[in-house]
Write a structure and sequence with these properties.
The protein is α/β, with parallel strands linked by helices and 114 residues long. The chain has one domain: 3-Layer(aba) Sandwich (Rossmann fold). Helices cover 46% and strands 22% of the residues. It has a 5-stranded parallel sheet, sandwiched between helices. Helix 4 packs parallel to helix 5. The longest helix is centred in the middle third of the chain and has 13 residues. The relative contact order is 0.24.
């Protein structure tokens, strides 16, 4: 199962992400995320040790301009089987991603932070 993990910029630690993944109850073979440096680096090290893949979908600003984040999120929603969002109730990027994930009809787990 491919699971996307998204969170607001700069507000989440690796431990919070791992706890959200555990709390979701999803069994996964691959973690997909936005190209946030800490998420990719931290998670890659952890999940590689546990024989799980980590894939970051790039935001292609030069191709899509202002719509680049939306296009990236559409690709992630189409690629993944389930979604985990760590959400503070405020971040528009996470809110928009959640709306797409819920509309897809696939499994969604939300961890609120605040």
């Amino acid at each position: 199962m491919r699971v996307a993990v998204v969170c607001p910029r700069g507000r989440v630690t690796k431990h919070r992400v791992l706890r959200a993944i555990k709390n979701s109850g999803f069994y996964f073979t691959e973690v997909v995320t936005w190209p946030r440096r800490f998420l990719v680096l931290e998670l890659k090290g952890y999940f590689n040790r546990h024989n799980r893949k980590v894939k970051a979908f790039p935001t292609k600003w030069s191709t899509f301009g202002r719509d680049a984040p939306l296009e990236r999120d559409k690709k992630i929603v189409g690629y993944c089987d389930a979604f985990i969002a760590i959400y503070d109730g405020d971040a528009p990027d996470v809110r928009n991603f959640l709306a797409m994930a819920i509309a897809s009809g696939k499994a969604v787990h939300v961890e609120m932070i605040g």
